[in-house]
Amino acid sequence: MKFLLNNVGYFFKEAKTTIKVNMMSNILSILSTGLILFFAAIILSCWWISSEAVEALQNEAEINVYYAEDMDEISIENMINTIEELYGVGEARLVSEDEAYKRMEEILGKEAKVLKYLDENPFNSFIELSINLEEMESVIESLRNIDGIDQIRDNREVLEKLRSITSLLETFGYIFIAAVGASTLIIVSHIIRAGIFDNREQIKTLRLLGAPEMFISAPFLIEGLILTISGGLLAIFMSAFSVKYIYTAVTGPLPFIPLPPLEPLIRNLIIMIISLSIAFGILGSSLGLWSARDKQTH
Amino acid sequence: MIEAKEVYFSYSDGTVALKNIDMKIGPGDMIYITGPSGSGKTSLLKLFMGIEYPTKGILNVLGQPIVRGQASKIRQMRRMIGPVFQDFRLVMGRTAIENVMLGARFLNFAPKKLKENAANALVKVGLEKKMFSLVEHLSWGECQRVAIARAVIRQPKLILADEPTGNLDKDNALNIIELFASLKERDTTVIVTTHATHLIENIKEGKLIRIENGIICEERLG
Ligand SMILES: Nc1ncnc2c1ncn2[C@@H]1O[C@H](COP(=O)(O)OP(=O)(O)OP(=O)(O)O)[C@@H](O)[C@H]1O
Ligand SMILES: [Mg+2]
To answer: Is there a single domain that holds both residue A173 and residue A264?
Structure first.
């Protein structure tokens, strides 16, 4: 195996020569691999973002309790205490009308000026409960038995929706990776096959000189890796820019969506695309070598 | 080294190329194989390299039986052979020295030594001025000498040279024969096919084998 290490430079030179001979198809295959990997990266980052959001929202499962408008402060105080006693409730807190108004202002951001057109504060004060998601059902059940409660609102529906989107994105992500894998393998193995065909005389000579098959294959393996890794780098550039763009586009109008921090997301993206490129490169060129194997020349 | 017992060989289209070949060649032997065009010289070398298999009979080369189903062992055996093909089989688009080095890249020589040996081999065949020329810019005789350098640099146990002097003038041809003869020091066996009668007439050592119509019709010590 020492001969492999001794010839690394030669292998790269050979790979370069083979690429040069078929420059155009190699460039096209880098572009298409890049595009394919780019789409995969975007779908995967959407999945990550939404699963992170679900994770974050899960810990923020909350119930808002609206009480009858004619209740006095002492009754409200009592109600809060009763609620806090309930099993599964972490904290119960009064959110005043003003605070409710301010929160909506924050959520709307730039659009908050619509609130200015209203004559008076349209929001009611309410009691905010932080709870354990698993206890949501039983807490709601117990709340129903307390007198003076007008309305109970929870964010289960939003959470459920987000979760179904996430699982859809996950399935989609897997299907996409499989499709990406298949098309990349087809592209790369086809190019490698063509390279082997162009070099068939040289390969025959090497076999006659007794060269090990690994020595003959190495440049093609490197060619495959050059193709997929270049495509991968292209995909990394495009997806990093797109994800950054999505972040700025989303954080403006929708500040309440809990986005995961950008840097680890991009780091994960880079690791994932590079690993996929390497795997697809090795598999693709192996497939090409295997499909072009010559039973006649031994 | 090489042992052939009643070897017959015919091509897949039915052409009978070799009949009843018996041979015993030892280390350090120098063998000239001669005979008219189409007599079976190249076919015999193809058998020795395991490119073709005997249709009948037993053939052993460097301890390796030349039989079907041992492709990878035969591939390994070839690493001990320095072949000079009748059509050279050089790699186009590469320089002379790159071609010579290619013959030994996978033979575990130290990388620095490899380049040095390649240059030395090219000097020995008189191509010091063409080392860095692309092989497609070389004349036939020059290509032939690159092929010879590629065979020699492998430090093989066995040289199989098919018409290695066919395109060379008398001086260059004698130079190559001398180069081959000098390998005897390392106990390298050299088998050369040739039409060149002036080479055969003057052989001082070695053995001459004449083939006609695939049959050995004369064996003579030089
Ligand atoms: N691949 C092949 N398929 C069928 N017949 C072949 C093949 N190669 C050679 N032959 C035939 O086998 C016979 C011996 O050919 P071979 O090449 O061994 O001759 P040779 O002695 O090397 O001739 P030359 O001196 O012209 O090189 C010839 O009749 C030739 O036509
Ligand atoms: Mg011949």
So the answer is: yes
